[in-house]
Amino acid sequence: MLNGVQSQPNQRKWIAQWESTKPLTDKWMYAGETHNITINTLIIITDGQAMWNINGNNIHVAFGNLIAVEENSVIEVVEGGNLDLAGWQIGFDAYSFFDKERGLMKFEWHVPVGDTYQKVQLTGGFLSSISDRLSEGLPDDSSKTVVDTQLFLYGLLKNLYHKQASEQQTIEEGVMRSIAYMQEHYDEVITRAQLAQIAGISQWHFSRKFSEICGKPPLDYLASYRIYRAQEEMLLTSAKSQDIAKKVGFEDAHYFSRRFKQFTGVSPRNYVHTLHRRNVLSISPQYAENLIQLGIIPRAVIVTPILLAQHQRLLFKQHNVELLEAKQFVIPIELIQQQKPELIIGHFVTEDIKKKLRTIAPILTGLTTDKDILLNQLAAIFDKQEEANKIQTQMDNKVNAARIELKSYIQSAATIMVLRVEPFGYRYLGGHSSGVSQLLYTKLELSLPEPLKAGEAWFNPCSIELLSIANPDYLFVEKRVMENFSAEENMRKLMESSQWKSLKAVKNNRIFYIDTSLWVDGNGVIGQALIIDEIVSSLLRHTSDEAQ
């Protein structure tokens, strides 16, 4: 045991002892699954995101998060099926020091900050340093490995105990507290006196500081926030204007209508009909791709350069859509503010990010990632149902034509598998999800290997042993693209393994390498057509090669 000693406030010294390291299984990706944590646990999220409920508290977890959970906790998965979640659990026990006669005794460990759990963001450098450690899995019994494992555990704990600067509360923090109050209670009567009291300063001082920080007086800020929420209601519901006015904090419907026109330039009645000419910003290339196909050209789109599909890059350039470059899993709030959008639209974002975006413009997020459903959702919002029906017919015809070309594969029940090689392990595409999963196994009616049919998540954990058991006839391999990490080492390990060499697909030269930027991030209207072409050409090319 490594004598690394920790201490908690007002408590005796203690040490941590590593007990287990294991990847998150597919059970961490099914909504409704419950996990009983019987040992102190550190969870590292290495890809994707999810919504969990930890001991009754909803928490968003995402790439780079370290979540510490005390023993005897309960974690329920709220959402995660198609959010690409992957990660690891590190279990440990804690022991306190006594004298030499009594030795060590079990110590009741608590997270440094919070109730029964704590979440911190790991730095890219730290994540890079632990990549090899996580990929190695369980340690052997050698003294060096045991010491290395303990050092790894203490490195994680150090991130929890990193002291934050304890500055005295500032005026700016008081203003931010008043903003949080407005966002929580915008549907109620709010006065400047209330807000100044919440900020802890005089009304005059509050108004001046608020305007300096936010660029407008507090009650104007409140009015704009209410109008943004009203716009969302108009786009997502069929409620009447007067009902929406009350819901967002305006008692007088006529005053609401006047203020609405001041902010938007049109009356509430005419707002929806002007969407097509407003400054729309998409936080997802897939959404932007679909909008363009419907005839709605967004002003800008958030992209991660290494994950931007080539067809999307060309499409955005053709339509003069500005590319706002951001790191993977990051929403660049300042860049979005600079664009002054009139509507923000996109995929799943955290509640914290959503709160920040909701101060900039009305925001529509949490829409589906399923292309067909998304197309209809966007068509309903922008009144483009005729265009959506035409696109859907074209896509159905494309799928039907592909199914005819692949008839022999479908009838023979030849098994098709998509394997993802990641910096931290391997996963396979499940047969019950959206996107390419639905395309392959529902629309094209291709067959998933029987041992993989239980996986309900989008991408499910896959060991080399499970790959060997699945033994597909055809294998599409995605070498996962991520910023700061490389899947090359795990790719090498896979191809050098005896299990890989014994696969039917490998022996028969039926391996096809696919691109993350297209198959995962580029699966819009155009992208799906390209994926269909790639599937058909890959399989038919193989048949042609065999015939020769």
From TrEMBL:
Matching InterPro entries: ABC_transptr_periplasmic_BD (IPR002491), Bact_iron-sidero_bind (IPR051313), Homeodomain-like_sf (IPR009057), HTH_AraC (IPR018060)
Gene3D superfamilies (alphabetical): Homeodomain-like, Nitrogenase molybdenum iron protein domain
Main location class: other
MF annotations from Gene Ontology: DNA-binding transcription factor activity; sequence-specific DNA binding
Keyword Zinc-finger appears in the UniProt entry: no
Swiss-Prot/TrEMBL GO biological process terms: iron coordination entity transport
Domain HTH araC/xylS-type: from-to ranges: 176-274
Location relative to the cell: Cell envelope
GO CC entries: outer membrane-bounded periplasmic space
Alphabetized UniProt keyword annotations: Signal, Transcription, Transcription regulation, Transport
Domain Fe/B12 periplasmic-binding residue range list: 279-543
Stated family: Belongs to the bacterial solute-binding protein 8 family.
PANTHER family linked to this entry: IRON III DICITRATE-BINDING PERIPLASMIC PROTEIN (PTHR30532), IRON(3+)-HYDROXAMATE-BINDING PROTEIN FHUD (PTHR30532:SF1)
Name this protein carries in UniProt: AraC family transcriptional regulator
